Amino acid sequence: MVNAESCQDQLTANTGFCIPFSWPVGKPGLLVVQVTQDAPFSGYAGNNKASEKKLLRNVFMKGDVYFTTGDLLVMDEDGFLYFPDWVGDTFRWKGENVATVEVGEIIDMMYFVQEANVYSASIKNYEGRTGIEAIVLKRDQPFNRERLYEHLVDFLPSYAQPQFVRIKYVMQITATFKHQKMHLVNEGFNPEVISGPLYFMHEPAHSYIPLTRDTQEHGFQ
Fold it and tell me: I need a surface site. Which of 4, 12, 135, 137 has the fewest CB within 10 A?
């Protein structure tokens, strides 16, 4: 494991490389895996920039490459490793940090939700990034917009309530069965590129209402 903030914290003055050391008990670290012929990294199809961001180069020696999994691990006194969270699965809205996993767990409580994937996007003229939930509905269950609104208001503070909802028919996952977020983040909440149903949180209606190009241009009023 390496320091979750930056491998640069462990650089030596003489070589510029990271140095291995005994990781403290109870302190989270980022799991990195060396890329080798036996353990290759295929990357993201058609997105070299995103693939490169997942790699650390020249870590312990010149030419080596490590894959940053995004998984945080904590070791207990008996040497067992536990998985407490992911790196980067948070967003900041209204001056508060929000964990997408926690928001997703609240959404999963709804009887009509089969699967939820929470991500974030920026809004023009607003500071920070707001939450967006992509959900797959259970078979033969309609999307109850009013009930979802009530549920999120009851269980989440205002800054953590997703401002947008999009309905998907299937959720894309990675080879390790994690939700893919990159393509969702790139699409944001743009009705011109999102083909499925798209809604935004409308307080006067106490519901999520359809988001169209017209409502988007008029500031979601």
Answer: 12
Class at the top of the CATH hierarchy for domain 90-217: alpha beta
Domain boundaries, the chain: 2-86, 90-217
Residue range 152-197, pLDDT digits in tens: 999 999 999 999 999 999 887 765 566 777 778 788 888 888 888 9
CATH 2.30.38.10 assigned to 2-86: yes
Confidence band (pLDDT; 50, 70, 90) for 219?
A: low
